[in-house]
Write a structure and sequence with these properties.
Length: about 325
């Protein structure tokens, strides 16, 4: 006859063989629903390389929020000629929002996604993208809906003509901004990392084609490249916060180069090697701290940010040669 001790031992043995109970987490960061964006890349080019498909926030552009790689072997195999070639792609863990789906064929095989200075399209690559912004919405239960059948096209007509807008500011390792008057800083394009011939592609926005520059909410002409001056975290100068300072480029000296002989907006961009950054007084309620400069080109969404991984102290552990100018931070007292 078994004793209560024998029965208890049997219960404990059975319990030990069973898995622990699993409950839905109360941590919202681990219990967040996300969607996906998927479709096909269609490529018509003699160029070869991996295809990088990236997702950008349509409201801010700048750095890609995520990316995926379609391997060269999967897309082209051993085929020759210009195609067209097709292959599927998928971007996962996409939150609700409005996005640009852009990409490029990495023709010179220099894409390294882990660093800001090596993670974007360069001259000679084939740029492409979806024809319109993509919006991820939610259903009645608040669950994000997947977006399917997105087509991302690439052709030789979209070969990227210039390197990213790598720049430097000869102002030491820090600039103190004023809260009462404008601060002016000249950005000069300079070869850095894999950017051998960087330039700024300058042009005025003329969306309706009437030859007159469109105006922004501040009454100034809309202009590319765009510039964003954003606060960085105290712990890491490579990580941005949400605080943005008012900043523009000064156009007076550039204007004759942006207009044709009839005084109308040129239809194409003008390569320039220097731009004057103007930082407006941010006001007394602006957040004290350190700020980074990001320049954004149009069409390919090429960017360059200072500071970056070439900064002294950040470059060496990553195998880069340090460049003092790439450690510049703007200080708002």
């Amino acid at each position: 006859m078994s004793t209560w001790f024998d029965r208890l031992a049997l219960v404990l043995l059975i319990s030990a063989c069973e898995g622990p109970p699993v409950f839905a987490t109360a941590d919202k960061r681990q219990n967040t629903a996300a969607a996906r964006i998927e479709g096909q890349v269609i490529v018509s080019t003699a160029a070869r390389g991996n295809v990088i498909v990236s997702l950008f926030d349509a409201t801010t552009a700048g750095r890609a929020v995520s990316f995926t790689v379609v391997p060269r072997e999967q897309l082209f195999g051993d085929a020759v000629g210009t195609g067209p070639f097709t292959a599927p792609f998928s971007l996962s863990l996409v939150m609700p929002g409005r996005y640009l789906v852009r990409g490029f064929i990495d023709a010179d095989a220099d894409f390294v996604p882990w660093y800001g200075v090596t993670s974007e399209v360069n001259a000679g690559d084939i740029a492409g993208g979806a024809g319109a912004p993509v919006e991820v919405t939610v259903d009645d239960a608040g669950v994000p809906r997947p977006v399917l059948e997105v087509t991302v096209s690439f052709s030789d007509a979209s070969r990227v003509p210039v390197d990213r807008p790598a720049f430097e500011v000869n102002a030491g390792s820090a600039v103190t901004l004023s809260r009462s008057v404008d601060t002016r800083l000249e950005l000069r394009s300079t070869p850095l990392a894999t950017q051998r011939q960087p330039v700024f592609l300058a042009h005025l926005v003329d969306a309706n084609g009437d030859g007159v520059a469109d105006l922004g909410s501040d009454g100034r002409p809309l202009f590319w490249p765009r510039v964003v001056v954003r606060k960085v975290t105290d712990a890491n100068p490579l990580v941005d916060e949400t605080v943005v300072l008012p900043a523009t480029f000064e156009l007076d000296a550039l204007m004759p180069r942006l207009l044709d002989a009839e005084g109308k907006v040129k239809t194409g961009p003008t390569p320039v090697t220097a731009l004057m950054l103007v930082l407006r007084p941010p006001g007394v309620d602006a957040s004290t701290g350190r700020y980074a400069i990001t320049v954004i080109q149009e069409t390919t969404l090429q960017t360059w940010r200072v500071p970056n991984e070439l900064a002294p102290g950040l470059a060496e552990p990553r195998g880069f040669t340090a460049v003092p100018s790439q450690g510049l931070l703007l200080q708002l007292p």
